[in-house]
Design goal:
Elements (H helix, E strand, L loop, with lengths): L2 H24 L18 H26 L10 H15 L7 H19 L5 H13 L3 H14 L17 H8 L3 H8 L4 H7 L3 H18 L2 H15 L3 H7 L1 H16 L6 H13 L10 H16 L5
Helix pairs in contact: 1-2, 1-4, 1-15, 2-3, 2-4, 3-4, 3-6, 4-5, 4-15, 6-7, 8-9, 10-11, 10-15, 11-13, 11-15, 12-13, 13-14
């Protein structure tokens, strides 16, 4: 494979994932989240657009690393996925003046970018191959990757972190402990996966993305012929079945389950395909917009970006 071919494939992967970020934030109304018709006080729709621009070169680099790994030009110890995530978050922070926009999305999509590079370098793409290579990438992470992701979290300053029982990200001593005890990013995420769906995806090979979200999105695209409707319905489906862990950390699990029940009800009303569903969806969107964003299903939105990323990589075009 020539260097030009590698660049072209890496650019293609980056564009696929950039499109996924744009489609996710543009879909509306995703209840309680920023979308094209709704902003938060300090973070607006255009901040997400700027973030999609800022993150693209880092997805490209991740894809290039994956291709190098697949062709034997680099080893697993040279992927440095934590550094890629940190640099991407840093660049996003430089490109927009809102608060945290896509930290969770970057954490989910970066292994997908590396895995896509590995897969396409072999001139053969399938969902199963992509998923298997994601597993290889996340399980091979290092303590240095963990420290870099802690740095990324400090830069992004996401809300609703809560307190971890061990190696808490807000504890200044955690990074030194990670290095001294040789704790990999994968192992750190094992701890967090008990109360966070993004790290749960990493540890369990993306079950919400691949087993729930992706097939439902494809079904909805075929049924509705509309990417906005399909994306919003997939958002509701995931939220209905998986209580949003950002809400759970901010407002408690009981409240997160209550929001899930409401999402299920809206979907049963028909969502965007019926007037009753539309009315219920807009009411839910308004209800979840409290001033402190305690009921913002932000984790679900990040997972939707991953679902869209897999779909676009597998050939979907709006």
């Amino acid at each position: 494979m020539t260097d030009k071919m590698q660049v072209d494939i890496a650019q293609y992967i980056s564009e696929c994932l950039q499109l996924a970020v744009l489609l996710e934030v543009s879909s509306y109304p995703k209840p309680g989240n920023i979308h094209r018709t709704a902003d938060f006080k300090k973070t607006r729709y255009e901040h997400f657009l700027a973030s999609a621009v800022a993150v693209a070169p880092h997805f490209k680099l991740a894809a290039e690393r994956g291709m190098m790994l697949s062709t034997g030009k680099a080893g697993l110890d040279q992927i440095n996925i934590g550094e890629i995530i940190k640099d991407a978050v840093e660049n996003v922070d430089e490109w927009q003046h809102g608060e945290n926009t896509i930290l969770g999305t970057i954490i989910l999509l970066t292994p997908i970018a590396v895995a896509a590079g590995m897969t396409l370098a072999e001139n053969s793409f399938s969902i199963n191959k992509l998923r298997e290579k994601i597993r290889i990438i996340v399980e091979s992470t290092t303590p240095a990757d963990a420290v870099a992701v802690y740095d990324a979290i400090e830069i992004a300053k996401p809300g609703g972190l809560g307190k971890a029982p061990k190696l808490d990200v807000t504890d200044s001593a955690s990074k030194q402990k990670i290095l001294e005890e040789e704790v990999s990013l994968f192992d750190v995420f094992k701890i967090a996966s008990k109360y966070d769906s993004i790290t749960y995806e990493w540890i369990n090979n993306y079950p919400i993305t691949f087993d729930l979200g992706y097939p439902y999105l494809i079904q909805q695209l075929e049924k509705t012929k509309d990417v906005n409707t399909a994306t919003v319905h997939t958002f509701l489906k995931i939220l209905a079945e998986i209580p949003d862990t950002l809400i759970a950390r901010k407002a408690g699990l009981a409240k997160a389950k209550e929001v899930s029940a409401q999402a299920k009800q809206v979907l049963e009303m028909g969502g965007l395909t019926t007037q009753l569903g539309k009315d219920g969806l807009w009411k839910l969107d308004e209800k979840l917009r409290d001033a402190t964003h305690q009921l913002n299903p932000g984790t679900t939105a990040d997972i939707i970006a991953a679902v869209l990323g897999v779909s676009v990589l597998n050939g979907y075009r709006p």
